[in-house]
């Protein structure tokens, strides 16, 4: 039965660039199944554009891939960014691998606001090697994936911790070379280290140098600077961040409001009320001089219960540069 465009695993005959992403309201494990199908569709002619399209389909723009394992000289941990992920998968096939797929058993899913985490303690990375000899390698470990909770459901973080691996050689090959001690000795030797080929291990070691240089490469591509100028600029900015004091939270100045003292006593005579207001204003001369003397002429609004000339309840008192008060209605 041929696949149709309505099939969620449908692959356009025009290539991954013309493939339309469909909404994924399914379990995240199906994304790993789709990734396995995409890896199986790889050909010997697949170039860097094909691998970039592969990484764009299954990994976020800020995704990271981490591998943890233990070699003869101690534990290793490599973390690469999104720009180096396509090359990582291509190096697996450059090391003699003809097939690559992942098997997840008894995985646990946890849903968050914007992401889905898949924790599989029994994950197996299976690689089929065609050279130097026909061998099937099963690399077992723990795989922790974080998917974005959206329509594309792409991988944001990939962390594979390798515990053990097994290299399986068919009995038919052993029977063919049963009388040849040299071939049997060659078949008894491992062709991988913790399930990884030498091509992949060398690339991971190279990524330790390439990953910090991503900022230099990006600056060179954006500003068209020479490598030396890019290095100087990056080092200067890093030095500025190191010597800059930590930013302190801005505090808003607290202003204390003083309570106004009521005028002595209000009289029925408006002239007496104005005299009382002038007397109260003279008592506040020091405060007015401190706050308004530097500004030349200021005005302090002063509300009174007695109406002014136009019937307004509020009038203002002006301060002259000499410090004297002058009422303004």
Automatic annotation (TrEMBL):
Biased composition (Polar residues): 286-296
Disordered: annotated span: 244-329
InterPro entries: LIM-bd/SEUSS
Bias (Low complexity) ranges: 263-280
Domain of life: Eukaryota
Protein known as: LIM domain-binding protein 2 isoform X8
Record organism: Balaenoptera musculus (Blue whale)
């Amino acid at each position: 039965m041929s696949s149709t465009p309505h099939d969620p695993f449908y692959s356009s005959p025009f290539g991954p660039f013309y493939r339309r992403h469909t909404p994924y309201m399914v379990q995240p494990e199906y994304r790993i199944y789709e990734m396995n199908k995409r890896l199986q569709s790889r050909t010997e002619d697949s170039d860097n554009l094909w691998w970039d399209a592969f990484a764009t389909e299954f990994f976020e723009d800020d995704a990271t891939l981490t591998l943890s394992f233990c070699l003869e000289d101690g534990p290793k941990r490599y973390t690469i960014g999104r720009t180096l992920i396509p090359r990582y998968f291509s190096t697996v096939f450059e090391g003699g691998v003809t097939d690559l797929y992942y098997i997840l058993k008894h995985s646990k899913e946890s849903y968050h606001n914007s992401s889905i985490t898949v924790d599989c303690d029994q994950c197996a990375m299976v690689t089929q090697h065609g050279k130097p000899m026909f061998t099937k390698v099963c690399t077992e470990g723990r795989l922790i994936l974080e998917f974005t909770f959206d329509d594309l459901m792409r991988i944001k973080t990939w962390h594979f911790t390798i515990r053990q691996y097994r290299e399986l050689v068919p009995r038919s090959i052993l029977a063919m070379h049963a009388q040849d001690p040299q071939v049997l000795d060659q078949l008894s030797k491992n062709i991988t280290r913790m399930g990884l080929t030498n091509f992949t291990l060398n690339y991971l070691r190279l990524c330790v140098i390439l990953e910090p240089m991503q900022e230099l490469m990006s600056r060179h591509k954006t500003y068209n600077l020479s490598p030396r100028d890019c290095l100087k600029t990056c080092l200067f900015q890093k030095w500025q961040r190191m010597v800059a004091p930590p930013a302190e939270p801005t505090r808003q100045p607290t202003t204390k409001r003083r309570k106004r003292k009521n005028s002595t006593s209000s009289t029925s005579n408006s002239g007496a009320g104005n005299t009382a207001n002038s007397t109260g204003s003279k008592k506040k001369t020091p405060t007015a001089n401190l706050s308004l003397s530097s500004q030349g002429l200021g005005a302090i609004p002063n509300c009174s219960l007695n109406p002014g000339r136009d019937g307004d309840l509020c009038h203002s008192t002006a301060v002259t540069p000499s410090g004297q008060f002058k009422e303004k209605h």
